[in-house]
Design goal:
alpha/beta, 9-stranded mixed β-sheet, 8 helices, 18 strands
Amino acid sequence: MNEKKRAGRNKTLMLQDNEIPFLREKLLVFNKSNNENNLPCAKDSVYEKSVFKDKIINGNIFDVLPYLPDGFADLIIIDPPYNLTKNFNGNVFNSRSQGEYEEYLASWLPQVCSKLKNDGSLYLCGDWKCTAALQNALEKELTVINRITWQREKGRGAKSNWKNGMEDIWFAVKNTDDYCFNLDAVKLKRRVLAPYKEDGEPKDWKSEDDGKYRLTSPSNFWDDISVPFWSMPENTDHPTQKPEKLYAKLILASSMPGDIIFDPFAGSGTAAVVAKKLGRHFCAVELNEEYCLLAQKRVDKAENDNHIQGYSDGVFWERNSGK
């Protein structure tokens, strides 16, 4: 693995040469031309969930999908390549026309949606450039019931354009009359700046040792998320890593303990890691081996450390506050 020089206080998670063989043994490696694990094809045989549950699968999503049974996932979180030219550790995804990007989505999204249970939910991430294509593709398979926009403050910005500080997450379900949404699990704890009292008692807020706070219901605009950076232990060298706090909101809202979370573009494993920390199971697929190894290392660390920055005591805190 490539070695980079780091500042003394840099907490970016890295792979050590002596741990790579042990991490590699834990991966489920899939090669279509040489199926070392002899995985049964879902459409031809009874598929044992234990084969893929709580596994990081190192393989191409187009090859792996036929081996995963339909309707196995309670929640699917998808963070696909956006319509940008981006180098993912040697695997380059090239920007393309709107029509070509929609064709790309159509080549895998219907198959991914088929893996969702009838009462399951799906979240699909994107930026301003590809979000219209994502919505169009998703509406062909499921019912879209909301769009979350979250503020991602990172980067120096563009010199001849507005800085891209927002991303979207499309929220869709199979059955609008039967899906999981745990409102109380995703309350945001905000500091009360103008506390109001009724008959001398606090109205909808509580006084604590370090201030006055109110639990508020979440909206579809999230401004409390910090993108992983070098001083955060969850940070890796993956170029588009999603924050653990972001995925914690999705997983707590739309799944129950013991449910299975499916991530077809795992990257450095944030969905799997957060699922592990929150008592859920996971199945994650990623093409690049180094990212798979990082994901496995993060999952292993989560065995003894379930801390999620910005989430504690059962509530989410405002940006740069709380624990």
